[in-house]
Amino acid sequence: xxxxxxxxxMKVIIASGNAGKIKEYRDILEPLGWEVISRHExxxxxxxxxxxxxxxxxxxxxxRAIHDLAHTCVIADDSGLQVKALGNEPGIYSARxxxxxxxxxxxxxxxxxxEGAADREAQFVCCICFMEENxxxxxxxxxxxxxxxxxxxxxxxxxxxxxxxxxxxxxxTTASLPITFKEQYSHRAKAVRLLLEYLQNx
Length: 202
Fold this sequence. Notes:
This protein has 202 residues and is an alpha/beta fold. It has one domain (3-200): Maf protein (Alpha-Beta Complex). It contains 6 helices and 7 strands, in the order H-E-H-E-H-E-E-H-E-E-E-H-H. It has helices at residues 3-8, 19-29, 55-70, 103-113, 179-185, 187-200; strands at 11-14, 35-38, 74-83, 89-90, 121-131, 137-148, 164-166. Strands 1, 2, 3, 4, 5, 6 and 7 form a 7-stranded mixed β-sheet that branches. Helix 2 links the parallel strand 1 and strand 2. Helix 5 (179-185) crosses helix 6 (187-200). The radius of gyration is 17 Å and the shape is globular. The chain starts with a helix and ends with a helix.
């Protein structure tokens, strides 16, 4: 079977409960012919504790937990915002920064931490772990450079999108741009492209 045909018949579970993240994967992969299933749709309630100290370790932990139950191809990722002036926080704790459960509160914590800071350099990082049916795993990392805005702006996206201005956005926050922009240029999009390049070369 040709690689393109194999890719068009790929079935994969996304090891995430984040609706925004699942939508991004669907929008990127389904036009290629992939069958994208959320862990909820697969009947899996597992939500493994992210005990890793890096994005790579956490992505692997999540992928392995779902694979052990489903025994099929899995995509898991760990991603987050690293802000230089905050010592690269929130980093791997982006989804639970300072113990806050509300996305707006986490964004405000970042903005408050940068009050008076001249350097607002930041980057989004996404590490994808692709686990094959046989349990072999492969890691792909995408980085999206930019800065932290002075205030929240925009309604699109999720997480830190309303305060992140990417280097290729023309000075607008990610949340101020069409979701298709993020799906083409983001850290996750870059990691997915590396995954697709790997599959095409198999």
